[in-house]
Structures are given as structure tokens and as C-alpha cells.
Design a protein that fits this description.
The chain is an alpha/beta fold. The chain is 19% helix and 33% strand. An 8-stranded mixed sheet has the order 5-4-3-6-1-7-10-9. The structure holds NADP nicotinamide-adenine-dinucleotide phosphate (NAP).
């Protein structure tokens, strides 16, 4: 199965200058706890926005550039959705981690969304598209606990597709 993992602001903001519009280390730790030991699938720009190859995860990077090479045993470079489907085991949970372009092309195959809403408006240059909430049911919801560093209120949701694919 394929799941999205995404954090957005009040206006669907999701990226700025090839990074995130906010700093929330707790949200990053949550991302790690959910995706660790799984496959993470991402666009080339999101891959290049990561600080490093993330530990304990197989990375699939999508690019149109046939010359793009990244030498690392945990990174596979592909050029189409079909290649992703060939590589991934559909019986496992595979995580699409962005960005906006990649979310768009995977939407029809998606069964679950790990959605974090960061309660604020942010300067951004990449936006998520509005979800059709008729298609999704809320399976879990909880509020983040805040501290001096993680000081922007945010809510975690797990949404499941109402009609199974
Ligand atoms: N808030 C969040 O949860 C979150 C999550 C992830 C990312 N982000 C942010 O989002 C931004 C990056 O997102 P983005 O939408 O600009 O870029 P992206 O989706 O990460 O990557 C776009 C690239 O993917 C490749 N691509 C896209 N469609 C393709 C297709 N059909 N076939 C083959 N390759 C394809 C192309 O690579 P080539 O140009 O190499 O051909 C394209 O330039 C950053 O700011 C990042 O920090 C935020």
C-alpha cells in the first residue's frame, strides 16, 4: 500500500527555498518514527532538500534526468511511477514523502495520509493541493505538546481512504 506523509500550514503551505517553512524538531522525529524501516519515495527536489541519506530507510528518488546518479546502497533512482510499482512490495506500507509534484501523481494509488497541520500562515513557494475530504475518514487525531523549541501548535491526523482501492 502507499501512504503520504505530509505537513502543511493553514493555507496548504509545504515548502520554502527547498526546505520546510517552519522548524519543528518533534515533527521531524515523528516523521522518523513512522517511516523508519520502510521505503520512502520522493521527488528529486525533496531528496536534495534532505540533510543526508536518512538512516534505516530505502530511498526511491524520482527524476526525469536519465543521467542522475546517486551512489548509495539505500538510494534507488527511477524515472517513472511504473518503476516505483515494480520495486515496491504492495503488501508493505510504502511512504510517499513529497514534494507537491510527486504527491499529485501518486494520489490515485493512495490509501492513507499521515497529515500534520501546522497552525499558522507561512511564507512558502510550494503548496499542497486541497484534499477532497469526502474521500477520507479520520482514523486518529492528536495535538502536539509544545515546548520552547517546538512552539508552533500543530495537530497530527491519520486519514484512511473511505472506499478501499
Ligand atoms: N511539508 C512537507 O511535508 C514536505 C514534504 C516534502 C517536501 N517538502 C518541500 O517541498 C519542496 C519540494 O517539492 P517540489 O514539489 O518542488 O519537488 P519534488 O516533488 O520533491 O521534486 C520534483 C522533481 O521530481 C521529478 N519528477 C516530478 N514528476 C515526475 C515524473 N512524472 N516523472 C519523473 N520525475 C518526476 C522531477 O525531477 P527532475 O527535475 O530531476 O527531473 C521534478 O523536478 C521543498 O521545499 C521541500 O522541503 C515539504
Amino acid at each position: 500500500m502507499y501512504s503520504f506523509m505530509i505537513a502543511i500550514g493553514n493555507n496548504n503551505e509545504m515548502g520554502l527555498n527547498n526546505g520546510l517553512p517552519w522548524r519543528l524538531p518533534k515533527e521531524v522525529r515523528y516523521f522518523r518514527s513512522v517511516t523508519e524501516w520502510h521505503t520512502i519515495i520522493m521527488g528529486r527536489k525533496t531528496f536534495e532538500s534532505l540533510p543526508r541519506v536518512l538512516p534505516n530507510r530505502r530511498h526511491i528518488v524520482i527524476t526525469r534526468d536519465k543521467e542522475y546518479i546517486f551512489e548509495d546502497p539505500n538510494v534507488i533512482v527511477v524515472h517513472s511511477l511504473e518503476e516505483v510499482f515494480e520495486i515496491c512490495d504492495n503488501r508493505e506500507e510504502n511512504f510517499i514523502i513529497g514534494g507537491a509534484e510527486i504527491f499529485k501523481i501518486f494520489m490515485p494509488y493512495l490509501e492513507r495520509i499521515y497529515l500534520t497541520i501546522v497552525h499558522g500562515t507561512f511564507k512558502a513557494d510550494v503548496y499542497f493541493f486541497p484534499l477532497d475530504m469526502e474521500e477520507w475518514q479520520e482514523s486518529k487525531k492528536w495535538e502536539a505538546t509544545l515546548d520552547n523549541i517546538n512552539n508552533i501548535p500543530h495537530t497530527y491526523y491519520v486519514l484512511d481512504r473511505k472506499v478501499q482501492l
